[in-house]
Amino acid sequence: MKKVLIFISIFFLNSSVLADNIKDFDIDGISIGESLLKHTSQNLINSKTKSYYPNNNKYYMIEFNSNELKFLETYSHIGIHLKKDDKKFLVASIKGILPYKKNFEACLDQKKIIVESIKETLSNPKEQKYTNDYDNLYGMSKAYISDFKVKDGFIRIWCTNWDKKIENENGWEDTLNVDLSNQVFLDWLNTEAYK
């Protein structure tokens, strides 16, 4: 099946092709289940700071920016989850990140375009739409989230509107995020990573 490339502005998709498996999607050419070595060197991967979860280090996340990965066209940064000690560096989850400094409404507009494109792409789209206030840990910050369950994983699209005081204190900015994750990784995240 033809891969579907998730873009910020629009999906370039043959309308006769529907995608329902998480592996049918990619972010700037990187798909779930493929080796990250197809896109960058092992030296660069190993040089990255690994972020682990509090209670289990089975998976870790590394981040790249568009200066490190010149092929990134849509996102300024990507975050990738890999399994610890996996010599093939198979991608379990990938997130594209694009800042929306001082223009949160534009972020919501782009999110809406992506969500509508995903609905057109899936054979049976069921959007779960909700907000998250981060348990008020970050002042009045709020994320506006849309989830889609697909075969073997999830697609999540969200805009985060950080509280201005939190932005200033931490140097954060509002962002658009598109995440693809396989179900095995999500099961681990929900049952082991924080327990």
What brief labels describe this structure?
alpha+beta; 11 strands; single chain; disordered N terminus; 21% helix; three-stranded mixed beta sheet; globular; 195 residues; eight-stranded antiparallel beta sheet; 4 helices
Low-confidence stretches: 1-16
- Give me the count of strands: 11
Strand order of the largest sheet: 4-5-6-7-11-10-9-8
Approximate strand percentage: 25-35%
Please, how many domains? 1
User: So how many helices?
Assistant: 4
In brief:
The protein has 195 residues and is an alpha+beta fold.
Give a description of the structure.
- The protein is of the alpha+beta class.
- The protein has one domain (1-7, 28-195).
- 21% of the residues lie in helices and 33% in strands.
- It has 4 helices and 11 strands.
- It has helices at 42-47, 104-121, 164-170, 183-191; strands at 4-6, 25-27, 30-31, 51-52, 59-65, 77-83, 91-99, 127-132, 142-150, 153-161, 175-182.
- Strands 4-5-6-7-11-10-9-8 form an 8-stranded antiparallel beta sheet. Strands 1-2-3 form a 3-stranded mixed beta sheet, with no helix packed on it.
- It is globular, with a radius of gyration of 17 Å.
